[in-house]
Give the backbone structure.
Amino acid sequence: MDSQENSNTSSSTEEYKIEMLPEDYPQYDLSFKLIFIGDSGVGKSCLTTKAVKNNFEEYYQATVGFEFLTFNMKVNDKVIKLQIWDTCGQEIYKSLISNFYRNSSLAILTYAIDNKESFNHVENWLNDLKSQANPDVRIFLVGNKADLEEDRKIPKEEGEKYKEDQHLDLFMETSAKTGHNARNVLVEAAKILYKDYLKFDENKQNEDNNKGQKKGQTLIKKEKKEKKGCCQ
Ligand code: GTP
């Protein structure tokens, strides 16, 4: 099976109108930075490439430093541009990569379901991220290589439990090889970031309204004072 499924996951119950747009789509309303992190070889590059370009490479070529991709989609009435940083999992690049944490709106922490060590290291990645990223950063946990069911070392429930215990925003198993959930990760990312934007926009509007009201009250008070001054 080679699938690029449409978004249909348990992360949110709201209905969104989603439309995929070409990589070179010329304009956008909102732009967000996403970072893929996790041990070397778990499939970060393959997963991003599968999600964005629908390609999969069997042979392993370690990422040097990081690679950059963009993904455009429309969520309801907004064109969203995701700037995706696919980072290298090798220890020697860790300090370089942590520079990218600060500007990221969402981190996708990846392990491979057939690699126990990569799951054990999730905690280290999470600690690094939390110590350096923006406190509002959204975090997804992704168990990749879900096609390797026979070699599975991490039960799905363990990933789900980890997500709950650590209050992460989403857990999903994916396969860059079959395409299972590959694009859904990005769709879910765009949906949650769009929701954050709506909340931010609503708070800002309330703040502006409050400021406006206060200003109005001050003006009324001033007017009353002036009236008092002239007639009494
Ligand atoms: P670094 O760049 O070193 O951090 O590695 P990475 O996490 O980017 O891993 P990469 O995407 O390069 O994949 C490593 C190997 O795993 C490659 O040989 C891929 O073909 C293979 N691989 C990646 N994703 C999957 C998957 O979903 N299923 C299977 N069976 N193999 C995969």
